[in-house]
Structure formats: C-alpha cells, structure tokens
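Posting for a labmate who doesn't have an account.
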Amino acid sequence: MKYLCATVLLILFTLKSFCCSCIGFNSVESGLKNSDVVFVGKVLSKEIIDLSDPLYPQMLFQQVKLKFLVTKAYKGKVKSDTLTVITGMGKGDCGYPFEMNKNYIVYSSYYRNVDKRRKKDKRFLSTDICQRTRSSDDKDEIIALENS
C-alpha cells in the first residue's frame, strides 16, 4: 500500500503543467523584433469565441477576439484604421486582460496555427501577457517606441 501511495504521489507531482510562464525581461527592442505588428489603439469591441485545435478537433478552447481603433502604428502594415486581435481568456492561458474603451500599446504577432506546420495565419493577430502589451498610459514606453 505504501508503494501504491508513493507511486500515485510521484505521478501527480511529475505531470506537466500547462499554464502561462513568461521568462526573462522583454525590452522595447526585443518586443519590436519579436512582433509582427505594434500599434496604439482603443478597444472597440470584445467577444468570446470558441476555437478548435486541428490536432484535437473534439476539444474547444475559448479566446477573446478584440477590435481596436488604431491611432498610431509603430511596426507592420496597417491597411485599415481597425485591427482584430485574439488573446486568451486569462487565468493561466497568458491572455491579456483588455478593458472596453481603453487605449493600449499592443505588441502582436500573426496567429500561429496549432497544426504540425506552425504556419503563420496572416488573417489574425494575437497577443498575450508575455509580449510587451500594456496601457497606453505608459509614457516611457511611448517615448521608447518613438525613439526606436
């Protein structure tokens, strides 16, 4: 019985955890380098959507789809004054907690499909708390972007 309990505890403590973890310090320069589109914008709409993983089509996971009114673009081709960005719900999936009608500096990348090819899907931008996305009230960030 002792061995059974010990084995169960060992298995429980060695299972891989799937939660958000951001490692290291992300400078403005590396944030720009690792992002496809960087802009300042206001959240116009926020919608919860269900997405499926091509590897596990029976599983759905929720994401937040946001529409932004772009006021200034710092990187990337922004062909419209509005952009759609996807992020997680938060609570362990790295989603950024955007609020309606607030302005943000958004560091975003083209959404990567979860299939084997990991190809970028240029229809969708995504961001999370591990990128430098933050409130546009951060004037030091704006100055650093202007000077880069």
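Reply:
Got it, the structure tokens are right above this. Residues 4-17 have pLDDT under 50 and may be disordered.
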